[in-house]
Amino acid sequence: MNWIRFYSILFVLLFGNISSVSALPRCLHVMSYHQGYAWNDGVEGGVEKTLAGKCELRKFYMDSKRNTAPEFIKRKALEAKQLIEEYKPDIVIASDDNASRYLVEPYFKNTELPFVFNGINWTADTYGYPYKNASGMVEVAPVEEMLDIARRNTSHINNVMFISDDVVSEYKDFWHYKRIYEKQGVSVKAIFVKTMAEWEKAFVEAQSYEFIILGNNAGINDWDVNRAVNFVEKNGKRLTMTTYAWMMPYVMLGVSKVASEQGEWAGEVVLAVLSGIDIADIPVTLNRHWNYYQNKKLLKKASIDIDKISRHKAISKDWLNATN
């Protein structure tokens, strides 16, 4: 995407002092989730970093991670729609699935207002993207990379347990794990939970599987960090992995998506569109950056010694002080 960066730089050079002669362009960032949720904050930070001083940036949080009822999300989408009508932004960023599902597709598909989506899991086809007025970045997980690492560190893998909170994006993740792994002869079962007690029960059940993937915990409203850390230290015997950095206190290895990548890319597209590029000419792309982590304490407790390749890639941290 070097050409996007080129046009972004060109925009800054041409219009860097635009605030001194006229109002800045109006940008709106609609986020599916809430401030304080690590993924949301990472995306938001990437957007802010890229657009600082280059447009007047307003924000709207749909809060659909903590409030999953469709009726609630539909109301928040209507609030966002009203904000768009009143604020009249020049361009809108729509982060994660629900912003596209409940706001962009129903009300703004193929309209004149340009939208940049990001954080949509696995495929944008679900919402009919791309539109004539929308393009963006699809979020994919390092599914095959995780299986390769697990196979290097486990004698054999025939079955996998996937445990996550009970939200739409995690069902999409599970479907792709299942589709990809079963092509390689590995069966995948999932347990979706709403409470801490359900998560603990699922974790114990998963110890009969050869490899465990821990998805998101953000939709578990009674989550207790210390309780979870103590529980996995006591009960974790099998190799556990995740794609979320904030889940590292509870897993042994992580290959995490980088939230800020989604926000920075969206910001660059915004600058390109504001400089005159037609958003219809910007292709949908995929995220491509990963961070590697290891939790040495959990690995040691389970007597798992990871291979040199995984150890070389991984960043070790004191995850005991991490928060949700």
Characterization of this structure:
This protein is an alpha/beta fold. The protein has 2 domains: 2-140 and 258-286, Response regulator (Rossmann fold, 3-Layer(aba) Sandwich); 143-257 and 290-321, Response regulator (Rossmann fold), CATH 3.40.50.2300. The protein has helices spanning 2-15, 38-51, 70-87, 97-108, 143-153, 168-182, 196-206, 225-235, 259-274, 296-301, 308-313, and strands at 26-31, 56-61, 91-95, 115-121, 134-139, 159-165, 187-193, 211-214, 240-242, 253-257, 285-286, 290-294, 315-316. The protein has a 7-stranded mixed sheet, sandwiched between helices. Strands 2-1-3-4-5-11 form a 6-stranded parallel sheet, with helices on both faces. Helix 7 (196-206) runs parallel beside helix 8 (225-235).
Structural topology:
Layout: H1 2-15, E1 26-31, H2 38-51, E2 56-61, H3 70-87, E3 91-95, H4 97-108, E4 115-121, E5 134-139, H5 143-153, E6 159-165, H6 168-182, E7 187-193, H7 196-206, E8 211-214, H8 225-235, E9 240-242, E10 253-257, H9 259-274, E11 285-286, E12 290-294, H10 296-301, H11 308-313, E13 315-316
Parallel strand pairs: 1-2, 1-3, 3-4, 4-5, 5-11, 6-7, 6-8, 8-9, 9-10, 12-13
Antiparallel strand pairs: 10-12
